[in-house]
């Protein structure tokens, strides 16, 4: 089994609301790792994230964590800097849904780990979301499968299992899933019913 290579060189990162000391140490580590970083004092507009791979923000910054301010993060992996363990602050950080964290003050270790974990968490989340969307799509069109199955049962006087087996055979011939073929059958029944009749006769 092949393992994906851990690589952060070439990452484009926005660092937001970091104090001067942390920004200095982060920039040193980013340069060493080949990460292209841009440091901003506050959360920018949407356009600033267009060519960005990752976001790092200071979870203790009053600029960001004002109680009356709701942040709208882009769909990017996020690393939070944190040094305060007060429950209210941790709750606020949780609401920002970070992918990884770094303890403050920033030192010369942990940056590579945070970058790697944030990227891996984002990849896993993206894969999970794609899987959920595929399952939701199949569930959405599942009702059409039952309608197509019922059509075959009535047309050829078949039982439920035999009708499904026929539907599956027809779908395989069209190199489609049973669900997607069911949509085609319901949309254009004449030709497919003739094909089903020939299949049953053969």
Automatic annotation (TrEMBL):
GO terms for molecular function: RNA binding. Residues 125-186 form the ANTAR domain. SUPFAM superfamilies: CheY-like (SSF52172). SMART domains: ANTAR. InterPro entries: AmiR_N, ANTAR, CheY-like_superfamily, Sig_transdc_resp-reg_antiterm, WH-like_DNA-bd_sf. It holds the Pfam family ANTAR. Signal peptide: none annotated. This is ANTAR domain-containing protein.
